[in-house]
Structures are given as C-alpha cells and as structure tokens.
From TrEMBL:
Its EC number is 2.7.13.3. SMART domains: HATPase_c, HisKA, REC. The keyword Cytoplasm does not apply. The modification 4-aspartylphosphate is found at residue 57. It comes from Solidesulfovibrio fructosivorans JJ]. The lineage of its organism: Bacteria, Pseudomonadati, Thermodesulfobacteriota, Desulfovibrionia, Desulfovibrionales. This is histidine kinase. InterPro entries: CheY-like_superfamily, HATPase_C_sf, HATPase_dom, His_kinase_dom, HisK_dim/P_dom, HisK_dim/P_sf, Sig_transdc_resp-reg_receiver. The keyword Kinase applies. Residues 9-124 form the Response regulatory domain. GO terms for molecular function: phosphorelay sensor kinase activity.
Amino acid sequence: MSDTDKRPSVLIVDDVPANIRVLAESLRDGHDIRVAARGVDALDLARRLPPDIILLDVVMPDMDGYEVCRRLKADPATAGIPIIFVTAKFAPEDEAYGLSLGAVDYIAKPASPAVVRARVKNHLELRAAREELARQNAALTEAAKLREDVDRIMRHDLKAPLTGIIGLPPLILDEGNLSDTQAMFVRLIEESGLKMLSMINQSLDLFKMERGTYALRPEPMDAAAVVRRLFAEAAGVAGDKHNVLTLTVAGSPDDGKTPAMLTAERLLFHTMLANCLKNALEASPENGVVTVALRPGDPAEIAVTNQGVVPADMRERFFAKYATSGKMDGTGLGTYSTRLIAEAHGGGVRMETSDATGTTTVTILLPQGECARGETL
C-alpha cells in the first residue's frame, strides 16, 4: 500500500469502554483505530506508533486528559499530532484551558457520530495541508540557498580569470612594438576587465546589503565633484539626445569649483548617483533637461529630475528588484541597488512622477548628523 493509500490512524483514549465503542464505530470505515484506557498507555502508544489524530477524554483516573495533552505537546516526537478533546467537561473555561494546551478542537459528550467524522476529517485535512506546505517551504528554502551558493561561487570564481585580463594589458603595452590600433584594442581589453571587476564587486556588495551584513565605510567626500565627474562621463549619451545636464547646490547653480561635502561611502555613492543619472537620461525625452540638486540638511537630499514620466505599471514597483519596463537590455537592478545603498547608509529613497508636469524626481535621503552645516550637505 502506498503512502497516498494509507488509512489515517486514530488513537482513542477513554477509560469507559462504551465511549470507546461509540467513537470506534463512528470512525471504523476508512480509519485504523487504536485505543488506550489510561493516560500513561496513551503516551506510550503515541510515542511508539504515532497516530494521525488523537481523540482524548478529559476525566480519567491517575492522569487526566489535560496532563496527557500537555505531555504530548511537550515532546517533539508527538507535538505535531492534532488532539481533539471528547468530554463531558464542556464549560467555556474547560474548553479554553484545553485549547490553550494545544488541542485543536472540543467535542461534547454524548458525541454525535456525524460530528465526530466531520471534525476528524477536517483536522486530518488541515494537518496534511500544513505538512505539504512545510515540505514546499523546505524545498523553496533549499532552492534559494542553492541559488545563493551558486551565485556566490560564480562571483568569486569569475575574479580569477579577470586577474589575467586586467594584469596582462599593461605588460603588453610596456613591451611596445604595437600599432596605434593594436594599442587601442589592448587598452579596451583592460578597460572592459576593470568594468567587469567593478560589476562583480558591486554584485557582492549588494548581496551583503540584501542580507544586512554589509560593513559600511563612510568618509567625508565632495558630492559636487562626484556629480561633475558623472556629467563628464555621461556627456556622450546626453549629447546624442541633446539633453542638458545641470547641477545645483543648496538651490544655487553650480560654479564648477564649490564643494558640497557629505559623509558616505565613496564608491557606493558614485554607483548610486551613476544609476540615477543613467536612468534619468534614458527616461528623458529629446532636448530635455536632467538636473541633480544637492540640498543641505540632515538628512542630506540628492534629487535627480528628468522631463519624463514613469509608466503607470512601474510606479508601485519602481524600486523593486528586477523591475523594468520597455527596456530590451534592462536588468531592473539600477533603482533597486539605489534603494539598497541608501538604506545601507541609514537613509532611503522616494520617487515622484507627474503626468501634469511631465517630470520625474528620484530623491535620495542620507542622514548626516554633525555633517550638515552651511554648504556642507
């Protein structure tokens, strides 16, 4: 007989033979019946041959049903067996006490066979459903752990071949005897290797942030200088769409030299702003304006605005993992990593988009404490 064909077993515990006969006759069809006339015998039988469900009397000599229930629930080997009290003690306080011990139901004596069958059927189905859910959760947990292990191994293993990709180009260039075109290709190989290494490192950092294990290393830094450098790197993309890039500090146009100091981890801050600027340029229409506004205070605010509108299907999941819309090569990790980085700094992010004004602003909030004074962010 397969496990799926196995008849559920019922342990009936009562010191009155007539009561046992009534319950046994009610459940004989479709169930394997076991009986015990004393509490101590019920404990021994439940531990040796765990039943699928127990029908338990309360008033018994030597050990009452409440004590039997308490001991069964205290034993990990029997704690998961559903227990239904079948008793004449049916005052509300009796029922409440029995349920507080871990019983799943109460049936009043004299027990109706139809009620007994229905209650037993319901609780056996509930137990089967809980066990199946536990199996599914265990399988999902194991699958998630396996995926994380594979991802972590791949990230670490990818670094080994990158050592050669990054380390050999300078040696080749030092040897000389290359044409200008060959030298350009070698530099491209080195640059691509460095970008890949940066992506792997960032991926590892995000992995730690997701699990709350990332060790933040904040330091004073010039946010305006970071934005100016990002503008220079994005000039080609902005030029293709005839976009204008503007920076303001504390509400005033950037003069190209005034610092805007804040405390953050330098590389993470650069990555976070680069993601925001990239998304803003992609969303900006032709001849649009993309603005980065650095605002002093605690928390400091960094607002990135473009003249595009976030699609309706993206607004509720804008900062969610893998959320993307209308991008053939989009990973959906840009805004997600922005949120993780801001939260790693103890801050947060928000997005505001308006069909009326045709603009979208992503605002990053970074707590500063003693750092926020004057033109310091």
